[in-house]
Amino acid sequence: MTDNDKGLKDSPTGSFRFYLQGMGVSSFAHGLQIILFPWLLVGVLNETAERVGIAQMALMLPQLLFVLWGGVLSDNRHPGQHLFRLYLLYNLPCLMLLGALWTGQLSYSAMLLYGFCFGTITAFVQPARESLLSRVVDTQLQQAVARASFVQFAAQSAGIFLAGYMDHIGLLPLISFQLALLVISGWLLRKSLGYLPEGSMGRRGSTWVDMMSGLKLVWHHRRLFQLMMVVAATGFLGFGLYLVAMPLLTREVYQQGASFFASIQFTFMLGVIISNVIIIRLVGRFRQSGRVLLLSLLVRGLFLMMIALHPPVWLLFVLVLLWGGASGVAMMLGRSLTHEESPQEYRARVVSVYQLSLFGAATVGAWLSGHAIASVGVLMAIGALGALTVLAAAIAIKFSDLWKPLSYETQER
């Protein structure tokens, strides 16, 4: 990333290029995880919808429990060094899963333990990685977020594509490769940020007080609070459903296997990538980010309702592509609004509230989706949650400050 690339400039101590490389390698590993974890449950262990929902909840529950603590630790430490140590810890759950597969002892309880350990590390990684982004660029934060999102989801798509060949490659080589990628990404993220003076990092005080300070800032900041409510709706009604319903839709509705599931995931990520390319190349910067965010929530609900009508395979993939495109816009805007609205010294803590809103709600959403699918079937559950998404978007459009036009000064901030 050069200094004259669309106005994006490295910070005096940071390298956006190394950040993007670290993000890309990490996201490739996460793309493998997106396929491997649910398919081990659905396709290998042949678990029920309720148990798949519980396992996905175990993967995301640490976000609810630890992400605020992770934000405090990130504000009080050099984020690059902190991330490198955290990425090394991914060795523990990955080696545990490798051992279970190697010895033929893979079980539902082993998957729960793996998911909880992996999710716990991720709860500390995500706020630190988001905080690092704002330290490696000086200008055009929305553009930086869009570019980071593009790299993230392009690399995830590559990981998903590779995981689709698990029947040919084998689970052990894929998980070993994932482990190596995680270590390399931690090293690259460490290189992206140089020395930081002690005063540029947060004051080390009471952890509890620091955790509450992020929540209080969001609570008293009207637009941030409403943004977190929209993000929570996305996690509860969309993300949780996506994690549980897609592998079950593959197995129970379309009677397909791992390659079909990987194709659905790849198509979703392709939609995310296309939307980010459009933002980077054509749009540049949304002047009314809140309005676009709420409209994306509305259309995502409509796409879910259409998927619930059991479309033919070709139309299913078109709808998943469009769903991914709308989700890509929402993810980019949610992240950039969080960065832009929060002060630098509190940024990791505010980002941790963002992660709590998204993944905490998704934890409950995954559990609810599993039970809803078991009760009324995959398609009916998708349709019901799609209708609730449309309702939530309509309420936010009617009453939220995010829909109100921003002043020129606020847009230029």
Structure description:
The chain is an all-alpha fold and 413 residues long. It has a single domain (16-194, 205-412), classed as MFS general substrate transporter like domains (Growth Hormone, Chain: A, Up-down Bundle). Helix content is 81%, strand content 0%. The protein is built from 16 helices and no strands. Helix 2 runs antiparallel to helix 10 (222-253), helix 5 (108-136) runs antiparallel to helix 14 and helix 14 packs across helix 15. It is globular and about 50 Å long. The protein starts with 15 loop residues before the first helix and ends with a helix.
Features:
globular; disordered N terminus; disordered C terminus; 16 helices; mainly alpha; Growth Hormone, Chain: A; 413 residues
Output the structural class. mainly alpha
CATH superfamily: MFS general substrate transporter like domains
For the secondary structure, the number of strands is: 0
Q: Give the second-level CATH assignment, the architecture.
A: Up-down Bundle
Give the total of domains.
1
Q: What share of residues are in beta strands?
A: under 5%
End-to-end gap: 23 Å
CATH class: Mainly Alpha
Q: Largest sheet at a glance?
A: none
Give the arrangement of secondary structure elements.
Layout: H1 16-44, H2 49-75, H3 79-89, H4 91-102, H5 108-136, H6 141-163, H7 166-169, H8 171-191, H9 207-220, H10 222-253, H11 258-283, H12 289-307, H13 313-341, H14 347-376, H15 378-399, H16 408-412
Helix pairs in contact: 1-5, 1-6, 1-8, 1-10, 1-11, 2-5, 2-9, 2-10, 2-14, 3-5, 3-8, 4-5, 4-8, 5-14, 6-11, 6-13, 9-14, 10-12, 10-13, 10-14, 10-15, 11-13, 12-13, 12-15, 13-14, 14-15
